[in-house]
Amino acid sequence: MKNCQVSVIVPCYNEEEVVKTFHRALVESLEPTGESFEVCYVDDGSDDLTRAQLIHLAAADERVRYITFSRNFGKEAAMLAGLRMSRGDCVVLMDADLQHPPELLPRMLELSQHGYDQVIARRDREGEGALRSFASRSYYRAMGHFMEVSVVDGEGDFRLLSRRAVDSVLALPESNRFSKGIFSWIGFDTTSFTYQNAARVAGRSKWGGRRLLNYGIDGLISFNNRPLRLAIYAGLLMALAAMGYAVWIIVEVARNGVGVPGYTSLLTAVVALGGIQLVTLGIVGEYVGRIYCETKNRPHYLIRETSESPASAVTERPSRMRGSGARAYGSAQPGTVRQFLTFAVIGVVNTLVYLAVYAALNPWIAYLTAHVIGYCVSIIGSFLLNSYITCRTSPTWRAFVRFPLSSLVNLALSGALLYVGVSHLAMGKNIAALIAGVLATPFSFLIARWAITSGAAAPRRTESLLGSQTGRPGE
Length: 475
Ligand code: UDP
Ligand code: MG
Fold this sequence. Notes:
This protein has helices at 19-30, 50-60, 75-85, 105-113, 130-146, 163-170, 179-186, 209-222, 226-256, 263-296, 336-361, 367-390, 397-402, 404-424, 429-454; strands at residues 4-12, 37-43, 64-69, 88-93, 118-123, 155-162, 190-195, 302-306, 327-328. 32% of the residues are buried. It is built from 15 helices and 9 strands. A 9-stranded mixed β-sheet has the order 7-5-6-4-1-2-3-8-9, sandwiched between helices. Helix 14 packs antiparallel against helix 15. By secondary structure, it is of the alpha/beta class. Residues 313-334 and 458-474 have low confidence and may be disordered. 54% of the residues lie in helices and 12% in strands. Bound molecules: uridine-5'-diphosphate (UDP) and magnesium ion. The site of uridine-5'-diphosphate has 19 residues, from strand 1 and helix 3.
């Protein structure tokens, strides 16, 4: 499927109990709309059978695409990966647990056809725990005062974005991503409607109290610098109060002389000031920490496999942090055909290099010495070029020692083929040499690739993305 009208992005973290039911419900809702669609599942490093189920879904339905992360990077990273892989004219973000009802999709699509770039399905808080509901409401009220973008209670990630909106979101490079703020920040024509909150169909929410608190702080800090201002105002207020207190003490001393009492108030002031200083330092530290994260420029996530480049099928629960298969987003195992063609071109280039060195040295030194030097230069050049370009890896001494084996194999094989061609098949000597050389090349390619990759250090990263490990809670 090259292009489609709708991409549905579904981050999944330990959703083995629901993902199939979700997919069925999704397809049942989308098919009657007549729109072409793809479903982009992002397995956020699940340690249950979610990944295996996604592989099955992709095998059974060609509209399903997936990527799996090397570990749990958080819902923000999963949504970002989904947005990046999506190809549809519009994109819908939704949870896998059926708390975002697929039955609402036709309505969202209809609204988007009226020209809206964002269609938000806003949930009410019916059936939610009283404590969580109260905390969420208070948080959104506070956010309303503090944040420079508006984040509305109940408006979460369940939304439809036009391609223009998706591109705008992807153009924001920040590492610490707070999607609710980002969606609001990009603007464009937005509409919303309310739906009745639904409970999870199965499985557990991944958002415990501490994660929610961290997410709340992330949101607050990501989209404004008012906490810093607040710290400045609090400091100023305390300084003014301290000055007033000093004036009052001086007046007291002038009126009544020096007295012993007063240490309680003094201690109170010291403790209060100490507390305020610590809070202020903490706020500054939060911002400095964020700057530190941004400058590290780490990828937001690492990919283990995608539906386009599947690894071996999984039937068992994966062990955590199996990092060897991970690679940065966008990098791909170089295809064998591309590698072989590159190897062949490098072979031609190196023959020319050999001839150039040989011809250049010939007038000055013995021709056999010139031959050996030319041969060595071309072998070294071939090794370096094949390491960097063909195999996309850093050269190592171990690989370098193994590499000449490829030339030896080439020499032996082409010699044997030449012999067979000339002696047994009655071919001309020149044409037989050419054919023998061509036939031997794939074998010397395989040996060269083996020498380089088996002696290679860690694979080079081919693309780096900004890093973030931000999680995200329920709405
Ligand atoms: N999720 C994820 N990575 C995480 C946590 C959650 O991809 O680290 C996914 C999860 O599988 C689900 C969605 O994000 O599809 C919402 O998570 P959850 O239902 O736990 O959140 P809640 O609805 O309780 O806010
Ligand atoms: Mg949920």
